[in-house]
Amino acid sequence: MNLFFYRTGRGKQDAAWNPLLSSYLNRIRPYAQVEERLFPTEERLLIALDRRPRSHFLILLDQRGRQLSSDQFAEQLRTLQLGGQQEIILCIGPADGFSEAARSRANSLLSFGPITLPHQLAALVLAEQLYRAFTILAGHPYHSGH
In whole angstroms, what is the distance from residue 11 CA to residue 140 CA? Predict the structure, then answer.
């Protein structure tokens, strides 16, 4: 499985967050290939999505999305894997949320709840939840007791 971890933003304040984010993305690599990319705007992100094959499964982080437990998120990944899905693109969008045009392209909208998180923290939470999901699926003890 190939994961594409896309974010929008300027990235100016990422210096303190990058080592943490990289740590979780590296932990995912035994389970899936991971590519991280930062886009300056939603428009540039959508252009990049248009250039990709349409066979991907697109998950947008959006406050209007479904809230899933870690186990439910892991089950969603399992279902995609068993269904033969090769590419999953996960996107964290602009500060004011994704446009209707972007949301209409998504296969799934995912929410971390009604709270507002800085982009860097949302990216870190998403990376940790991806790692947690893969460890749940692998029966790794990381998830138990946390």
Answer: 33
Would you list the domain boundaries of the chain?
2-138
Q: What share of the chain is helix, strand, coil (3-state, %, to 5)?
A: 40, 25, 35
For residues 45-65, give the mean pLDDT: 93
Cα–Cα dist 30/65, whole Å: 28
Beta strand pairing call for 108-111 and 33-39? unpaired
Model confidence at 26: pLDDT above 90: yes
Lowest mean pLDDT among 49-53, 80-84, 141-145: 141-145
Rounded Cα–Cα distance for residues 62 and 64 (Å): 5
What pLDDT score was predicted for residue 146? 56
The CATH number of the structural domain formed by 2-138 is 3.40.1280.10
